[in-house]
Design goal:
Cytochrome p450, oxidoreductase activity, acting on paired donors, with incorporation or reduction of molecular oxygen
Length: 483
């Protein structure tokens, strides 16, 4: 009897054995995290987690899971989500054995097989790359950083004053969200590549850059949600979508643009200059590494910064009392010389000295965090025991643990019963120093923590501080003139 015949005769036995083995495996997987509760079916199937990740309101669904099931909730057979400050800081501490989860990190690659700072899961390579790039992001080797940001703040103000101020005879609709994106894109392109795209000059999405990168992010979210990362990262699929930097769909344009700018700079002794790209070259990044990192900073830097600016202004304009208090502080700052009169731009140091402005910025970013992605970390092999709310909790090795950022920032135990309300005064009136320290520590997690903290934080906050002060000043002066 041939092997094929024997297998055929035993087909039902093989089917039954396979089903039994599968059920045993599923039970084993379920029991690993059975101590953690979550949405219906999340312990047995990826369905809930995939549907949540692919949706546009994943941040809200993760918050609901933590609100209902506790500071650590189960959202998949091998996935947890947490809003615990202790656990999040523990996972990201400088010497933490945790690493980025492959299923998510690989989905952020811009080219198949090519990692950047965010997608790198090898901790040794990640640490070395952060060290190479830290000085450039900090501004210590980019002496023109603040002057560069000022240039584009002035362009934004000029655009508003010349094109979008309404008069008694004519109302000018103004999409501030769009202009905030133009500002962020121009700033990060100049800071990162040495030249803007010209969005503010033309009042348009030059080369459809924003449209293209948003489409790329949607594709990335789709691939992560459906488990298609490794398929879409294959070279032949990448060529189809242009993510290899070759001709294809228009996802390739940002890569070609970055490569062209980098190659041009490298031909002109760029390491002798004082900007971010020159700093990266001095610290050993190759041309290909520069391309990978530039796409990361252009997409991530512009999207999160513009989101923060838009959300802060949204809450300002819908809270008249806050608006009036900030107006009074800005007027006083100009009157006493803390800020220069127009067309001068306030310095970052001066902006940070204004307590109510800082409270508005912190509160706006807290109530609507700029990034709601899960950013999962992998529990080290062998598992780990952590203390959450004073109780020891064991996490099995290989488990993915994500952050529920909105649950974290809207935590009533940390920010009070009105945690979901926009109230900047909470940062100024809190008398309990210990509680205020916890609030600040929690807020800082918006930018990550420890070995995973966002290197672009100094640039983002500089841009946000200046934009908030100067655009608010323009709006206030226009309102006074109208009155």
């Amino acid at each position: 009897m041939s092997l094929f015949s024997a297998l055929y005769e035993s087909r039902w036995l093989l089917v039954c054995a396979t089903l039994v083995a599968y059920l045993v495996y599923k039970v084993w997987v379920y029991r690993r995290l059975s101590a953690f509760k979550g949405p219906f079916g999340s312990g047995w199937s990826e369905l809930w987690h995939s549907a949540t990740t692919i949706s546009t309101d994943a941040h809200a669904k993760y918050k609901e899971a933590c609100d209902k099931y506790g500071p650590i909730a189960r959202v998949g057979p091998n996935d947890l989500v947490t809003c615990s400050v202790e656990l999040l800081t523990h996972m990201s501490a400088a010497r933490s054995p945790y690493s980025r989860s492959v299923w998510f990190a690989r989905g952020t690659r811009t080219r198949p097989g090519e990692d950047h700072l965010f997608s790198e899961t090898n901790e040794n390579i990640h640490t070395r790359r952060r060290q190479q790039m830290a000085m450039g992001y900090s501004g210590k080797e980019n002496l023109e950083l603040e002057d560069t940001v000022d240039v584009y703040i002035k362009k934004l103000i000029q655009l508003i004053r010349t094109k979008y101020l309404s008069t008694p005879d004519s109302a000018q609709p103004f999409d501030f969200g769009q202009k905030a994106q133009y500002l962020a894109v121009d700033v990060i392109n100049d800071v990162g590549l040495g030249a803007p795209l010209g969005d503010l000059d033309t009042d348009s999405d030059q080369f459809r850059y924003i449209e293209t990168t948003e489409a790329g992010m949607k594709l990335g979210r789709l691939s992560v949600s459906l488990g298609l990362v490794f398929l879409l990262q294959s070279p032949w699929i990448a060529r189809l979508f242009g993510s290899s930097g070759k001709d294809g769909l228009r996802f390739a344009w940002p890569l070609r643009h970055a490569r062209a700018r980098i190659n041009e700079r490298l031909r002109h002794d760029t390491e002798k200059r004082s900007d971010m790209l020159a700093s990266f070259v001095r610290h050993g990044l190759t041309a290909e590494e520069l391309v990978n990192e530039s796409i990361l900073q252009l997409v991530a830097g512009s999207d999160t910064t513009s989101t923060a600016i838009r959300s802060i202004f949204l809450y300002l304009l819908t809270h008249p009392c806050v608006y009036a208090a900030l107006q009074a502080e800005i007027d006083a700052a100009v009157a006493d010389g803390t800020a220069p009169p127009a067309p001068g731009i306030i310095s970052e140091t001066a902006a940070r000295s204004l307590p109510y402005l800082q409270a508005c910025i912190k509160e706006g970013m807290r109530v609507h965090a700029p990034a709601g992605s899960p950013f999962p970390k992998r529990v080290p092999d062998g598992g780990d025991t952590v203390v959450v709310d004073g109780k020891p909790v064991f996490l099995p090795g290989g488990t993915n643990v994500s952050v529920a950022m909105f649950a974290l920032q809207l935590n009533k135990g940390i920010f009070g019963d009105d945690a979901q309300e926009f109230r900047p005064e909470r940062w100024l009136l809190e008398k309990d120093e210990k509680k205020l320290a916890v609030m600040n520590r929690t807020h800082d997690l918006i930018f990550g923590y420890g070995k995973y903290q966002c290197l672009g934080k100094p640039i983002a906050l500089m841009e946000i501080n200046k934009a908030m002060f100067e655009v608010s000043s323009v709006i206030f002066s226009w309102v006074r003139a109208k009155d």
